[in-house]
User: What shape does this take?
Amino acid sequence: MEFNLNLTIEELKKRTNKDCLIKRTMLDEKAQEYISLNEGDKEALKHLVRASNYANTIYMKQDNEYNLPFKEFLEKEIKKGNEQAELTKILFDAQLGIIGIDSESNKVILAKNIEEKDGKAFYPSDLSKKEFHSILKKMIKDGETKEVAEILNQRTIVKRKDNKLYAVDYTEEFKIEFNKIADELEEAAKTSTDKDFNEYLLLQAAALREKDEMLDAKADKKWASLQDTVLEFTISREQYADLLTGSVMEDSELKKLLEDNNIIPVSKDSIGIRTGIVNKKGTEDILKIKKYLPIMAENMPYKEKYEQNISKEEDNLQTMVDVDIVSLRGDEGAYRGGITIAQNLPNNDKPSLKIGGGRRNVYHRQIRTSNTPEALERRKKRLNATLNPDLHKYYNPEADHWFTIGHENVHSLGPKSGTEALGKYKNIIEENKADMGAIALLDCLVNNRVYTEEEKNQILVTFAANCFLKAKPELSQAHRVRTVMQAYYFIKEGAICVNKSGIIDVNLDKMIPSAYKMLSEIVNIQLLQNFSEGEKFIKNNFIWTEEINLVSEKLRETDKSLNGVIITPLADLLS
Assistant: This one.
């Protein structure tokens, strides 16, 4: 298949230089964390890394129908000595696809005449939202409710047949890749020194081979219970990419038909895989907060109106690990203007939570601890240009990690079901909730001596300083949209101020009350389970003000980075 490359040599050279394309390097073969492993665990890690590599193929198939043909085209052109293709391939490998987005919210399209669809490649590329809704309504009226439920399931690829749609389960669509992953997991279980971890690997392997969501549930339940393992392996399934499934809540007739037939639409899972080595010291630090989760749950707004994952007693269904990363593949490693620094999984739609399973937080050490000279210089320039000098003493990169710990734990608090009714706004609102909970519940943690008053101020100032972006994002960027909403809300409440020179100031006394106020609004929206109310909340707060724009302009002046790339030397060697 032939393609016309979209970016000029000049643009490609700019986007691939060290100032614009930031390298994030994971563990290498000389890392003490790897050297110290038992030989059996080293052998197991080799198989886990090999398993993870198949996630790239799966993810690219889910993301865009042209990804794999374009990759093959670039490789052929590079062999011919095509410099434009060689530079394009660098960006393709970084964003893991033909279309990505940079930190200034520009779409980076690597080939001409290629478009991004709301349904990515989960759905037929020629399927419009209007036709999608029309077909579903007709199928329901024709009594094909089971087929519609499968189409709107999180683990299916949707295809056409005449004037109808039908769903293919992931275990069938990605049978080759899933079986190869399962083979490697079974090999890893033969040499890994951890019995519990091996049990999980075998459960996960079985779930990959057969269309049975209960096999997934058993694997997820076991994974979420792992606390003291040596190695880390996760097949992540996040739902930020698919914007078409949630659109069914926008059609009132279709929404009513779905409700009447008890069909709950759940956005498609993008597949990613993380491998790593659990860092014991980092994990011990993170676990200090665990016993206070019930106290945090008791301080959530409207707590009497919903059931949440954390019980009033000390919770035993939340594990937490800090991980030295060996590889991030598929959705985990697709660097599109940013990269995940931590995750709380499984999400509420996963069946493991219905059979008594818990959740697990995993933190990515190599992503958050980037202290290269270039990174430190970028941070210094940014703070000098945007933050009140009197507040520099409070800015602490480690405080961002403390905030992230709060964010991931708050994902386990609040309403545990019903948010699918918010459609395409579900993820924005959930991420907004996690951020606001991390700030709103800080006093609970200070009162219990998890943090000092000084550390609380560091979290508040670091959060405020990081609450501004280089450009206004699109609604599809859940994490970034919620950041703009928070900047707007805190400015409106007087907790954050921006002067005419674009300098941020923080009213420390107003930060926590403002966060709790916004958190209360968010939880109320989740309880209402009403698409229109969710949309209204987003529109009322996703406002790019002049103050926000002033800071944005300064950020673009001081930071030329546009994207990043994950470098995995140990994983590459083990592969």
Remarks:
- The chain has 25 helices and 13 strands.
- The chain has a mean pLDDT of 95.
